[in-house]
């Protein structure tokens, strides 16, 4: 699967996370609403008194009654009415352009899924049991007439390595593989996965290994490879030089191939990622269609402002102030949400940063939440800390099973040092990672020590906290770690 290129993509806004980010400001919104209601109510009282005085003076002097704020508002509403029509046309045009791009993206995504499914359906290697692989292996010892001439300044060149290289090249060539694939009515690319040819110039050994769904298939492929070896020998002797081949051994057995297990899992993960991407595109397509429908409905519902009636009173100003207080606080919360770019939920880490979530633990804020905050956390499906011990064991077990061969594991991230240390100790205490060395170090973007630690480990686990970690930081940490050739297994998220 291609490396994630989040830095070249526009970050989608998670509306659910945005809603909860605003909802958690309920105390500030209530306070602001009350304050603004009092201020606007007082303003309404004063304005009403001034307007009434102006009207009384105009009547007493026989002058025209001054225009009310409602009449002035009517003119402003007419301007907004025309602006709403223009905005509708602009928005609908933009939505349709996005729809066209989305449809093209869906076609490409479906094409990728079809290709991946075809490979899964036809690949023999994908169907093999990695814990019980039928294998046939044959070794040959290759010799030439090369001899070291004692006392001679000039020595004949030893072309044994060239012979080995020629066998390796010809046995894995298109002509060789397609010849064998035709015998099984199989495409060349699938047969190539069942054949391995390797050479060792130091020992002068040529090793051929074949795999199959059963012992008979693996053996038949090996027999055809041996025939092919005889077929190319004359060509090698003509172009490279005379040589002798001696079969050292041939074994037919079953074996465990962990690399095959990992390869099969990568293929399945790739298919899941492609299907999820298509689902996201389809959901976005529906959202865009609904946006166009909503824009059309809003325009249809837009009415020309009616002539203003004489109204006013303190109630309107109180209500206006109350609503304005809520809107201001909510608006500030929205701006902060968009500007901070903090990680909100585990689901967006894979799509935005290309990092899978190994597990979610409760952060300090979630553990101490009470009342309305606790209820909002529950609705948001944030952990409350009661299941952290079991989740820690699950995370440790996941790490152990994902990378059983890893001996040294680096735990790093941009969270507080004591929080990171506590996580490392909890993973060790779970008992799932006995025998493995867990190194804990701060963010690789801020700590030079982490750069040194990264060179010592086999795999890296990131840690992030919704209260402090941002998508940009996680992407930068992942990119830097991968630039050192280190695999980032996933992320432990505190929410």
Automatic annotation (TrEMBL):
Membrane-spanning residues: 28-46, 317-339
Coiled coil region boundaries: 264-298
Domain of life: Bacteria
InterPro entries: Bact_polysacc_biosynth/exp
UniProt entry tagged with the keyword Transmembrane: yes
Alphabetical UniProt keywords: Coiled coil, Membrane, Transmembrane, Transmembrane helix
Annotated PANTHER family: FERRIC ENTEROBACTIN TRANSPORT PROTEIN FEPE, TYROSINE-PROTEIN KINASE
Protein name as it appears in the record: Capsular polysaccharide biosynthesis protein
Protein's organism: Faecalibacterium longum
């Amino acid at each position: 699967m291609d490396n994630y290129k989040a830095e070249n993509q526009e970050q989608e806004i998670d509306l659910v996370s945005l809603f909860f980010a605003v909802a958690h400001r309920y105390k500030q919104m209530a306070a602001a609403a009350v304050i603004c209601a009092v201020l606007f109510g007082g303003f309404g009282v004063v304005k009403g008194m001034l307007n009434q005085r102006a009207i009384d003076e105009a009547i007493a002097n026989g002058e025209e009654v001054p225009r009310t704020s409602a009449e002035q508002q009517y003119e402003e509403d007419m301007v907004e009415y025309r602006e709403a029509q223009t905005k509708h046309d602009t928005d609908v045009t933009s939505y349709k352009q996005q729809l066209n791009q989305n449809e093209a993206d869906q076609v490409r995504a479906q094409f990728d899924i079809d290709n991946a499914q075809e490979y899964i359906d036809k690949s023999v290697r994908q169907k093999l049991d990695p814990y019980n692989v039928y294998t046939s292996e044959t070794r040959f010892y290759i010799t030439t007439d090369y001899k070291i001439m004692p006392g001679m300044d000039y020595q004949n060149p030893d072309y044994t390595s060239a012979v080995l290289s020629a066998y390796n090249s010809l046995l894995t060539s298109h002509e060789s593989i397609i010849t064998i694939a035709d015998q099984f009515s199989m495409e060349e690319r699938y047969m190539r996965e069942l054949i391995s040819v390797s050479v060792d110039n130091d020992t002068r050994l040529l090793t051929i290994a074949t795999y199959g769904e059963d012992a008979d298939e693996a053996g038949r492929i090996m027999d055809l490879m041996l025939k092919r070896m005889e077929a190319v020998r004359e060509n090698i002797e003509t172009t490279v030089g005379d040589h002798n081949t001696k079969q050292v051994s041939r074994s037919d057995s079953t074996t465990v191939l962990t690399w095959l297990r990992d390869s099969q899992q990568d293929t399945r993960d790739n298919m899941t990622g492609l299907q999820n991407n298509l689902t996201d595109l389809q959901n976005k397509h529906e959202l865009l269609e609904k946006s166009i429908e909503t824009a059309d409905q809003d325009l249809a519902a837009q009415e020309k402002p009616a002539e203003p009636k004489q109204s006013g009173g303190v109630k309107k100003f109180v209500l206006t102030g109350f609503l304005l207080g809520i809107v201001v606080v909510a608006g500030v919360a929205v701006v902060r949400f968009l500007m901070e770019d903090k990680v909100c939920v585990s689901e967006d880490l894979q799509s935005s940063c290309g990092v899978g979530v190994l597990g979610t633990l409760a952060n300090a804020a979630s553990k101490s939440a009470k009342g309305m905050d606790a209820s909002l956390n529950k609705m948001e499906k944030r952990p409350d800390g009661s299941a952290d011990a079991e989740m820690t064991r699950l995370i440790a077990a996941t790490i152990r099973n994902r990378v059983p061969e890893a001996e040294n594991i680096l735990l790093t991230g941009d969270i507080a040092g004591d929080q990171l240390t506590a996580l490392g100790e909890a993973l060790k205490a779970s008992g799932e990672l006995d025998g493995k060395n867990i190194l804990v170090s701060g963010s690789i973007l801020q700590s030079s020590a982490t750069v040194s630690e990264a060179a010592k480990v086999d795999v890296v686990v990131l840690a992030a906290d919704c209260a402090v970690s941002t998508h940009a930081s996680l992407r930068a940490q992942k990119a830097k770690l991968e630039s050192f050739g280190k695999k980032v297994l996933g992320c432990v998220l505190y929410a």
